[in-house]
Write a structure and sequence with these properties.
The protein is of the alpha+beta class and about 160 residues long. The protein contains 5 helices and 5 strands; from the N terminus they run ααααβββββα. Strand 1 and strand 2 form a beta hairpin. It is globular and about 45 Å long. The termini are far apart.
Length: about 160
């Protein structure tokens, strides 16, 4: 993130009604620079940028930023929550059953909610949340060399699960 992007983050936080602190700016920078990061990876990224921050402060800031629409929380089945900076576009996710890697996939068809239920039971549907499950290129037996290691969970924020 460049120095010119920091004033934009500051303005985004203010516009969302949130207090601007160095930790919150660093947190939003970390989430946006990462790839579906877990809380521990986000805390480590914030600490690299500004020094000490408690895990509780990270949770509180993530909660506030999620409620304000600045970050999106996803919870693939069998995995801890992950956070991303891509918000407001009703995109979906691909999740690897082996290493837990997560990738974005654009809306399945058309405009949000991009999928309509057969029976909406009277609900006004404005979003569809779809998770596609499978094996990523590194974990597929037909594509990965036997000595290839899955992505490092400490750097990607992913966790290894077998959540089938």
């Amino acid at each position: 993130m460049t120095a010119t992007e920091t004033p934009n983050i500051t303005a985004e936080l203010r516009d969302a009604g949130l207090r601007v602190t160095a930790a919150r700016v660093a947190l939003l920078q970390t989430v946006r620079a990462g790839n579906h990061l877990g809380v521990d990876a986000i805390a480590a990224g914030v600490r690299r940028r500004v020094g000490h921050i408690s895990l509780q402060a990270v949770y509180e800031a993530l909660h506030a930023m999620t409620a304000a629409g600045l970050v999106r929380r996803i919870e693939p089945a069998g995995s801890p929550a992950r956070f991303e900076g891509r918000t407001g576009d009703n995109h979906h996710h691909l999740v690897c059953r082996s290493c837990g890697a997560v990738a974005d996939v654009d809306c399945a068809v058309g405009h949000p909610p991009c999928l309509d239920p057969v029976d909406d039971a009277g609900f006004h549907v404005d979003e569809a949340d779809v998770t596609f499950w499978g094996l990523c290129p590194r974990c597929r037996p037909d594509a990965a060399p036997p000595d290839a290691a899955p992505p490092d969970a400490a750097t990607t924020g992913t966790t290894t699960t077998n959540g089938r």
